[in-house]
Design goal:
The complex is a heterodimer of chains A (214) and B (346).
Chain A: H1 2-30, E1 32-35, H2 50-62, E2 87-92, H3 96-101, E3 106-107, E4 121-125, E5 128-133, E6 138-139, E7 149-155, E8 160-163, E9 171-175, E10 189-193, E11 197-200, E12 206-211
Chain B: E1 3-12, E2 20-24, E3 31-36, E4 46-54, E5 62-67, E6 74-79, E7 84-88, E8 97-100, E9 102-103, E10 110-112, E11 124-131, E12 140-147, E13 151-154, E14 167-173, E15 178-179, E16 183-184, E17 201-203, E18 215-219, E19 233-243, E20 247-250, E21 259-262, H1 277-281, E22 288-291, E23 312-313, E24 317-321, E25 332-340
Antiparallel strand pairs in B: 1-25, 2-24, 3-4, 3-25, 4-5, 5-6, 7-24, 8-14, 9-10, 10-13, 11-12, 11-14, 12-13, 15-23, 16-22, 17-21, 18-19, 18-22, 19-20, 19-21
The chains are: A alpha+beta (214), B mainly beta (346).
Chain lengths: 214, 346
Amino acid sequence: MPVLNSAAARLGQALRETQDVLQRDNLEATASIVNSIGGVNGDVPSEMALSDVDEIVSVLQQNDGEYIMVKIPGEDKIATSPVGDAYGCMCTARMIPVLNAIDEFTRKQFYPNVNVTLASEWGAVNNVRFFISSQGSVSPNASLLGNDVANCFVTAKEGYKVVWQAGGKARFIYLPPGYNNDPVMLRHTAGCSFYQGQAITNDLWVQNLRSTGI
Amino acid sequence: MTFQARYSGSFTSDDPAARHDVELPQGQPDRFVVRNRTAWGDDAAETSVQAEWLRGMAFDSFQSYDQAVTSGALSTEAGTTNGFRFIDEMNPPQFAALATTAISAAEPAVATMADTGSIAVGDIVRITGSTGMLQIAGYDFQVDGVSANTNITLQLDAQNFAAAATAGNVRLIIPNRMYPRYRYIVPLEDAAGITQEAQAVVTFSVDHDFSVGEKVSFRVDDEFGMSEINNMVGTVLSIGNMAEGAVYTAVAAGEAANAIRVDIDTSAFTAFAFPTSANAADGFQPAMVVPAGAGPQNGANPPLVPTSAAFDNRSRYLMRIGTSVITSAGATYDWWAEYSNQHEAE
């Protein structure tokens, strides 16, 4: 049943994006705000700069936040650069130009070993690795000058978690023709459901590094 | 044609008449109708005795029946403002910025606006580009008063700011309702923002949804003076409102509250104070309170953890009914929302 398989694939994507959106909005509502101030665009927050990334690392280190990812040691490959132990930063894909402009930013293709990376990873600088998504959090018109602000959630290990309820695993629900007020049995429906709860395990280990320039 | 769903209800309009939000159990309807049950057929002149919105019409528009005096004859009207607007609080609409020519350095702060748009008391607005008062740029404020197309009153005590704002933008926003949510700390009703006392009282620019027993954590940088409280975790002892003269009054759970009292002794801390506009222009970290857990509750016997502070998605689907539709004060209005099996716009 290729049509049903196709529907399942699309619903699966919608389900996972919905899960991400719920967690994203939870982080946006609860994470501590740190404005980027190292940029030069004259706005508050400014565009993210190397000094802002280092400041966030310093904050998380002072709060005893553990790194999520272990370092990728250097290898004898031209143009590659080792990557240090890192916190994870989740941000909108609109941050791509800003990330690329950060001093010493290493794009993923220049990692010594890309086999240990996710497709959504964009790159790294110092001790933060950046993951982008089209569903990333943006606060519209929230800067001093009225520009959009990207909420970039930098988190240490176990900074937040998702709670799954027993019996509430994701389900694909298919109803054949004859359901839902369908007396002549013409329509079938497909949907998905899941239970999910969000939790911040330590508010000191999740920081919202905000940036303009998007 | 059979309908996929049809929901209905009724409400009594405010006095004076004001807009009203109807919470819907599912998304945007295909047809939404409101009828003034009190005025229908009473032979008095009445505008918008029944109004409706259909899928495909612009938001804020409406089509209505006006009722003539004595005869009760109905005539049709169509409008484009203050009608119906569907709001999904998880994906809220964005509103245009409205100019303000001044924000007073006073208690309370008042923003002068030639066009207040659809801003109403209780709404949340975002201030940007507040020239001369940049320390509040980017902040969200609850609107405590509206004088249509003249000014709005912000939930802010700006009397100790060095100068008024001479320009800026005010934008209506609808934040998502992920609960609980951080809040910005601001001076309010002659109180500094964080009082200096054995159990500090903290005031916010927008009414909060913290609950008693909840843990909250402070983010207060050096620019705001009371940096001793930075990263400290306190327990909410009570929720309440700060009134003129820095008088704090506790309220019951579920009531509107712009302040909390916490179990942190700030008597010996540096006074809380907003940075200057010039300092703000250089970049600063806003003073705020973030949720930090739920327990165990101090002194509870047997020990307990209040579950009222658990994270929750309280976002809703709303149909906002504007004042071009709700024209009678204290009247009973009936509404119904219809959702079609199939809608074809050819």
